[in-house]
Amino acid sequence: MIVSGCSNSDQSDSDPGKIKITSTIGMINDIVENVGGEHVDAVGLMKSGVDPHLYKASQGDIRKLDEADMIFYNGLHLEGKMTEIFEKMEKQKPTIAVTKNIPESSLRTPADGSQGHDPHVWFNVKHWISATETVAEELSDFDKEHAEDYETNAKEYIKELEELDNYTRDQIATIPESTRVLVTAHDAFGYFGEAYDIEVKGLQGISTASEAGSKDVSELRDYLVDKKIKAVFVESSVPKKAIEAVIEGAKEKGHDLQIGGELFSDAMGEAGTEEGTYIGMVRHNVDTIVNALK
Description:
Radius of gyration: 19 Å
Number of helices: 9
CATH architecture of the largest domain: 3-Layer(aba) Sandwich
Structural class: alpha/beta
């Protein structure tokens, strides 16, 4: 298999007394660490800046999946190129999509239905609370001896998530309604827009595997010029070229459009930083959006 991203430290060095868990994206690994606590040895395959839509597992990743006692992934075709791997692993060990208990009626679907459900559910914090509950339930079923600890850890983490949900809603509401428009490189923030009352426009589709054409660029440019929107945003895991084309096009129309900052969409920040946690990532995004659009 083609190596397309760096993996974390070798799980073979893990504590033999702990449950070995491999997750795909950092946001899921963050849940596992918070809920599993001292009882788990958690490894995330995709590091900061890695695009899960295009990710192909390396031989090292396959080894981590083979060695894991449990596997957690997002599902909804976020890790589309790894689908066959998960199907194989499901026959050998608990391999769980953390989105499985989110009601289908709550999932976003493109108007033409061609791309399936939008996988970026972590941008509605309430959906990520559901994912946390799923991880806690699966850990408790797998390791009944420590089920009470998982339940306690989950409750504490969910309390923090509920505070994050309230913070996000309150902060976005401070942006004047006329300029409450979030424009990014690809359509990763649809759940965010629905949950927190901000209009969202992505230059590309839900998956970065699709490319924005000149018509997409010109239509978005004209919209931003007409609405007098002053800022657009780049993403840490998506090339800036297409957004820069929109900015240049607006300039040619006499409208000064700025890059409002870099948002974390499909990947969190570097490990060891505040943005390298799910809560820190969301707070960073919220503060960046509000500062640029107020």
